[in-house]
Structures are given as structure tokens and as C-alpha cells.
Amino acid sequence: MMRDLYTQVIMDHYQRPRNRGELENPDIEEHLLNPLCGDEVTVYAAFDGDKVSDVKFGGRGCSISQASASMMTERLMGKSREAAEREISGFKAMMVGEKEFPEMDDLAALKGVIQYPSRIKCATLAWTAFQKGLDGRS
Amino acid sequence: MYNVQEIRHDFSILKRRVGEKKLVYLDNAATSQKPRRVIEALTEHYEQHNANIQRGVHRLAEEATAAYEGSREKIARFLGAPDSCGLIFTRGTTESINLVAHAWGRKNLREGDEVVLTEAEHHSNLVPWQLAARDTGAKLRFVPILDDGTLDMEEAERLIGPRTKLVSVIHASNVLATINPVERLAELAHDAGALMLVDGAQSAPHLPVDVEALGCDFFAGSGHKMLGPTGVGFLWGRPEILDEMDPFLGGGEMIREVHLDHSTWNDIPHKFEAGTMNIAQAIGLGAAVDYLDELGMENVREHERRLGEYAYRRLSEIEGIVLYGPEEDRTGLVSFSLPDVHPHDLSQILDEEGIAIRSGHHCCQPLMRRLGVAATARASFYLYNTEEEVDALVGAVTRAREFFGAFA
Question: How far are the Cα atoms of A51, B141, B197, B319, B334 from residue B218, in angstroms, in the given order?
């Protein structure tokens, strides 16, 4: 059971997060708090024209929130604004069981979280922050 | 001393399993489990006596009123209150403090006045005062905590002064397990001409409480944390102060005479009990207090003191663990964190072993900031917990640490 949730992939992203840090003069800087537990995340993104040219995240949180944020940065890097929004809404649909997780992708490791409704917010925190950042930019 | 194994039979829920594991319930600071007698009191009320209280002139209404008022007297006695007319039923500690913040605070606080709280307050004893301060222009001042989790009493003596109108302090911390010197704070408050409110949410269930000995003017508590049903709690206040206060909620039962353009108020405590109260729950809380009285609060305290000390010592043996709060004079709860395991992950892993603990900010975000953490894990014990359950906790925390360590 424990290993269904805390998979190798999640633990890898948690303990060796990708793109952790800050951006100077970002186009997006969005701070979000999970009111349930006090965890916080800040996402930063820079755009080159319509494309996401860099993404970083900071903050503190549980393995699920940190791993999901790390995966998100990999996922959104280089995407157009529209594609990024599609990724975010697609991911949120996966987390409520309305969409299949992609096979052979790190994101699939988050599938186990669906069984733990109180943890779904942990997984979507960074993604929600990014979407808020995009909304604020338009 | 009572026999723990014997009284565990009174709590059916303690026999249940979580998956294949035996339930180990260590989230008592959030809410306690209920003995059969309390559950039966609810059922008996609904099956035998259910009626609205106070004004009905029929048998059921009289029986229900007698049980409700009888419960008020039991709780007043439990708190050492000289007279039950100062005991007001509320939904819980939060509503009790909001009642004082509205009915006393809005009437008496002015610009330049100060309300003294501490850095370690639960949001329920902070946010109502922020709202009252916003409406009245009064200022909030905060007694800091020392690194060991106790209050900086030197600073308290400096802060409580001629501007202070109220000192409102958590009796026992729901995070640090500190038992605050509320008797001394009440003296300081009264010397300054201020009133003293004690948030007893984490003390009334666990320690013998005597409002006269504490010297406080208000004492707030929650029934569901002391074996009672959810939906009921209490505020005890000095009758002469309650008499002078404005009402809190307006409506039925809290009035004496109603005209189209004005009304006069009922006597205390009814002045503060508008509308139909949580009757069955109040009666259930009376049964809970009977249960606690029979065990003896001195015995409950002694059992939890021993268990808390045992848990503190056993947990402190885990490598890298950080324990919060003072080493001595604590209530039966332990907050802690592990360097590599987030508290949220820890409670998820413990849940797999049937162990229920809490993780998060425990409704104390300013205190978390003071401690420099976003969240802690918290195991909180009650009169039915055992050393074996502490051992189960320590074993599971150790395994969680190893599990996370294996990926590092």
C-alpha cells in the first residue's frame, strides 16, 4: 500500500526536484498556500514570445506536492500558453478520475494519489498556481 | 487509579480495525471518542424524551428541560463554578470566544484599549479578537513564547498594564502541550483592572479545572474534546459580568418582552441561548461529565502525564527527531517533526498501520511561523490510550523514517 502511493518516481522527484529555485524578473510569479496544511508553493515562469522558456518552483510541502511541482516544470517547459493550459486542465482532470494518466510518463506515478482525497490538493497545488499566473497575465 | 483496559470496553470504536490493522487513535486533541453512555444518552433522549425545552407545558418538554438544565449544573460543578447561571451552552470553544468578543468586546473596547493574547493561540482565540479590534479600534498585544515553549512571563508583566482591558490565553497549548500559568496571568489582569478569559479547549478534558482557583472571568470549552457529542460546548462567565453584557444572537428564548420596536432580555444564562439549542448534545455532554467525574480528573491527569512523558522519552530516541514544547509540566500530547519526512507524508504512512495522528498547522499558523515550520506531526493521548499504543507509534515513525531514508 505504502509503495502504491510513495513510488520510486515520486520519491525521486521529491528528493531530487527538477527546476527548484527562483527566476529573476519572471513573467509569472504566483504564490499559493494549501490552507489545509499550510504548505506553500511559488511558481515562476519566463516567456519567450508565446512559449514558456523557463519554469522554476519554490516553497515547502509534502512529497506529493513537491514531486508534482517538479513534474509540472518538466511538463510545461517549452510549451505555448495554450498548450500549457491544456496540460494543466488535463492534469486536473486526471486527478479527479476524469482522464487517463499517460503511460510511460512520470505523471503516472501520481495516479495512486486519487485514492486519498485529502491529498489531491497537494498534487494540484503548483498546477493551480501556474494557472493563476497565466490568468493574471492575460 | 482506574483500569485502562477495562474502560476501553466502554469505547466500541477502539475495537475497530483500519484495513487489517488495529485502530490506534492518537488524534484526541482534535476530538475524543465517546463512551457508550454518551451515545446512549443521545438515543435515550430521542427515543424517550424528545421535545423542545423551556416553555412547553407537557410531560416530554418538562423531562427534556430537566435533563438539559441538569446537564448545565453538572458542567458548572465540573468546572468548580459556584453557580450554574454563569454556564452558557454554545457550539464549542470557538463560539464561546466569539460570544465574548461580540457581547463584551463590542460594548466595552475602545480605541486605545488593548487585548493581550499570546503567540501560541489557536486561531479561535485570535481571529475573533482581530475582528473585534477592527470594529472598535482596540489593539492586540502578544506575549511571546520562549524557546522551550513556555510563556515569557517577564514580558507578560510588561505588556499587561493600564491600557489592557482583557487578557485571553489558551490554558493548555494544542501544539506545545504547555500548561500556561493562567492563575498568575489572571492576577496580572485584575491588578491592571482587566478581565481574564481562559481558552480551556485543551485543559477541561485533561486537567482538573476550578474556575474559582484559576481566578478567571470567562472559561471556554468544547464538549466533543471531552467525551461529549459534537455541536455543544460552553462558556462560563462571572454572572455579574454576563448580566452587564449585550446579547450575542437575537431570537427566541433570549428575550423577556418583545415589542415591534424594541425588546428586553431574559436572565442569564438564557439571554445568551437564542433559538433552539443542541438539546440532545447538551444532555450527552452531561453524561460525558458524569463519566469523567467517576474516573476522577486527578486520575485522568495522572494517566496522561505518565503516558505523555513515556511518549516524549520514546520519541526523543528516534534519530534526528525534533520535539516541540517544554520537557516537563506538559499535557498528554507530543508535536514533532522529522528532518526527511513531511508531517503530511508521515500521517499517511501511519494511517497504513492503523495509527491516527494529525499533521499540519493545528490552527496555529502564527505559532508555526514562530517555530519556523510549515507543519508538525502531533500525537495526542487521552484517558483510554496505552503504552502499547505509544510503542506502536514509535515503531511506525521509525519505519517511516527508514522508508524515506532509503530513497535519499
Answer: 61, 19, 5, 43, 27
| Tens-digit pLDDT profile for residues A5-53 | 888 899 999 999 999 999 999 999 999 988 776 688 999 999 999 999 9
Which amino acid appears at position B279 of this protein? I
For residue A35, CA distances in Å to A41, A125, B122, B208, B364 come to 12, 11, 15, 34, 12
- Spatial CA neighbour of B234 closest among B143, B100, B333: B100
Interface test with chain B among A6, A10, A119, by most B beta carbons within 10 Å: A6
Residues B135 and B160 in one domain: yes
Which of B352, B361, B407 is facing A15, going by the closest CB pair?
A: B407
Whether B391 and B271 share a structural domain: no
Task: Write out chain B residues lying below 8 Å of A1, CB-based.
Answer: 19, 352
pLDDT beyond 70 at B31: yes
Contacts of B232 (CB under 8 A, 6+ apart): B89, B90, B91, B92, B223, B224, B278, B281, B282, B284, B285
Q: Are residues B101 and B193 in the same domain?
A: yes
Based on the structure, what is the number of domains in chain A?
Answer: 1
Q: Is B364 a catalytic residue?
A: no
DSSP-derived 3-state class of residue B140: strand
Contacts of B367 in chain A (CB under 8 A): none
CATH number of A11's domain: 3.90.1010.10
Closest Cβ opposite residue B403 in set A2, A60, A61: A2
- Global pTM? 0.93
Q: How far is A84 from chain B (nearest CA, A)?
A: 29
Contact between B83 and B72 (Cβ < 8 Å)? no
Query: Above 0.90 for ipTM, yes or no?
Result: no
Residue pair B196/B248 in contact (Cβ under 8 Å)? The answer is no
> A39 to chain B: which residues are within 8 Å by CB?
344, 374-375
Give the SS3 label for residue A15.
Answer: helix
Beta-bridge mates of residue A43: A30, A57
| Nearest Cα residue to B221 out of B272, B283, B285 | B285
Angle at B146 between CA B145 and CA B152, to 5 degrees: 65
Q: Summarize pLDDT for B342-376 with one digit per residue, the tens.
A: 999 999 999 999 999 999 889 999 999 999 888 89
Catalytic residue among B85, B216, B363, B364: B363
Q: How many domains does chain B have?
A: 2
B370 touches A: beta carbon within 8 Å: no
Q: Assess whether B359 and B386 both reside in one domain.
A: yes
Q: Each residue of B304-349: pLDDT tens digit? A: 999 999 999 999 999 999 999 999 899 999 999 998 899 999 999 9
Residue B92: helix, strand or coil by DSSP? Answer: coil
